[in-house]
Amino acid sequence: MSQYLDTLNPEQREAVETLDGPLLVLAGAGTGKTRVLTARFAHLLVSGRARPWEVLSVTFTNKAAREMRERVGAILGRPVEGLWLGTFHALCARMLRRRAELVGLTSSFTILDTDDQMRLLKQVMQAAGIDLKRWPEKGMMAEIQRWKDRGLTPARVTAAEDTDYAANRGRAIYEAYQQRLRELNAADFGDLLLHMTEILRTHPEVLAEYHRSFRYILVDEYQDTNLVQYLWLRLLAQRPDPEPQNICCVGDDDQSIYSWRGAEIENILRFEKDFRGAKVVRLEANYRSTRPILGAAAGLIARNTGRLGKTLRPGRADAEGEKVRVVSLWDSEEEARMVGERIEAARRAGHDLSEIAILVRTGAQTRSFEERLIVLGLPYRMVGGQKFYERAEVRDAMAYLRVLHQPADDLAFERIVNTPKRGLGDSGLRAIHDLARAEQIPLAAAAARIVEGDALKPKPRTALRELMQGFARWRQVNEKDGHVVAAATVLEESGYTAMWQDEAARKNIEAQGRLDNLKELLRAMGDFASLAGFLDHVALVMENDENAEGARVQMMTLHAAKGLEFDTVFLPGWEEGLFPSQRSLDEGGEKALEEERRLAYVGITRARKRAIISHAANRRIYGTWSGAIPSRFLQELPEEMVTREGGAAARAQRDTPSVFGGAGLLARRPTRVIEAGAWEVRERPAQTTGFRRGDRVFHEKFGYGTITDVADDRCEVAFDKADTKRLLDRFLKPASEA
């Protein structure tokens, strides 16, 4: 059985064999954290220090708990029974079943899901006379969960901790909500930790019993713990002298990136103060990445002051590799082309697409890369989120635009007629449908007619009349000022943007991302000559992305990438205001900036062999181009670990092969230098296609036409039996081949 120790390096073995007293294992990216945790658990059992039920082992996900259970069983050669191994919530639920009466529940209490929680809170707020239109229950629930994450019962919410939400009645609503939960013999997820922490705080005999039961405590991902998790662990681990405090926490302060959901980096930073005589073991041998990747990441993260400090070194035998590439590009369109071309070259060279990842700072960035991959026929998968044009807010906005372009689009009209809420209940919608069927007219026409009568109540009738008048006005804006201005006007005057702005003001953490996606949609429209051309493009994009099988490029946000690794990682959009985000610069101060830097560190260390960072000098905002400044993080990368391409760097390295051996480089042509804040960026080169102005072409949907303009990979075509449209060249073929 001792063979499990033979596979460990000296640092890992020290972490496994240091069994007495508090231990903090600082496990850098790719240093074998899971192996250490598993081996330590097994070593406690093999050495006879503890029996299975005397070890409390806490993970952040059920997947991690299953993996640890299986690995420990594999080391021991048998299944292990009676383990206290699981997530914070699972372990606290198990404890609470035994002690429920101490918080006014019975052991058979129900754990409510999110929908049940929201319905219950809504009932409580209605009973208290709260105006839910002004103070939606979602915002109040966010406040309640924030209190629970901080270990605050209603009685512990001080004036300083209170909120002005719901007209300064937040604490009273919280108390009423908790009372209602007790009456229903129910708990929400936040209660599981809150109740157990309160029991341990106020019932010393229960705490003493758990001290006797758990001789050792193991904690994974300690840097991601919130305050109530920290309090629960500290109560269980801190014991009066001379009892040992056998707690081992494994984590990486350099990868603490979840403050927006309550994680407190201070928990790991103050470990040595919390536990007397604590020992710190640093795992610094990285078995994932090459020396240049580790060097670039180390140089970047060293700029942070709020860290315990460690320096990753390569543990691989083949640690030497190519430098991290920093690519400077003219605009965001060229950035998407660069990424797409290099991935296409990688596929031709035999690289597995599933080992290539595009990691973005915000979900709104994925749109241009999704479209480019579809154009190139490269299948991709969105990890931890939906594809851009499948997101609810984008579908809503597209439905408004479809009605704007084609009033007879009943499906689109039905989607947005009551979004945002206009007071149209089932009876109102039924009246519109009945009139449309009776007169055999589109729903929009029926709505325009019904507002002139009294079939609807006054409030929804007025709201619907304003909507229909709005569409008439927005069509005039489209004709006069263009489709981008019209789209922005539609989203603003319809109240749709305001709906999400209100959600953001009420601390809905998803709302800002949805607003960013709406802005990105407007940016995308600027690439097309008309609303019709844009709508056709989206329909074709969605159609051509169906049924792709086999290996896929992985696309996700940097937050979703934590814990994953890939051979090749693209890190686009490293610009001030985008990464680091403008919100962190405006609101968070140095603490928020350091978390953004940790996020950059996480991104770079996802790469095994290649990391390609890029930034653009120009990005389109509401149809107009705006200059962008390279991220400060780019200047913090050690020069000896990076290769810079673009501008002066491109001229100096003109003959350097691409990351995949020659393909995907920017076109070589005389450069026009612009000032971009950090270094020079080249003028965007034209992308040649097989078509020229005047060529006759064929499109499967629109038939024959003549090309009137060519720009990059888009062609403007005057069709014989359809309007002039702007299309991607891959959807066209020469008329002679039709």
Descriptive key words:
7-stranded parallel beta sheet; alpha/beta; 24 strands
How is this structure best described in words?
The protein has 738 residues and is of the alpha/beta class. It is built from 30 helices and 24 strands. A seven-stranded parallel sheet has the order 13-14-12-15-16-11-19. Helix 2 (10-17) crosses helix 3. The longest helix is centred in the middle third of the chain and has 24 residues, at 458-481. The radius of gyration is 29 Å and the shape is globular. Residues 648-688 have low confidence and may be disordered.
SSE diagram, text form:
Elements: H1 3-6, H2 10-17, E1 23-27, H3 33-46, E2 55-59, H4 62-76, E3 84-87, H5 88-99, E4 110-111, H6 114-127, H7 137-149, H8 165-168, H9 170-183, E5 186-187, H10 189-202, H11 204-213, E6 216-219, H12 227-237, E7 247-251, H13 266-269, H14 271-274, E8 279-283, E9 285-286, H15 291-301, E10 313-314, E11 324-329, H16 332-348, E12 356-360, H17 366-375, E13 380-382, H18 392-405, H19 410-416, H20 426-439, H21 443-450, H22 458-481, H23 483-493, H24 496-505, H25 511-525, H26 531-544, E14 553-557, H27 558-561, E15 566-571, H28 582-604, E16 607-616, E17 618-621, E18 624-627, H29 632-635, E19 642-645, H30 647-652, E20 696-699, E21 703-711, E22 714-719, E23 725-728, E24 733-734
Parallel strand pairs: 1-7, 1-8, 2-3, 2-6, 4-5, 6-7, 9-10, 11-16, 11-19, 12-14, 12-15, 13-14, 15-16
Antiparallel strand pairs: 17-18, 20-21, 20-24, 21-22, 22-23
Helix pairs in contact: 2-3, 3-4, 5-10, 6-7, 6-9, 10-12, 15-28, 16-17, 18-19, 20-21, 21-22, 22-23, 24-25
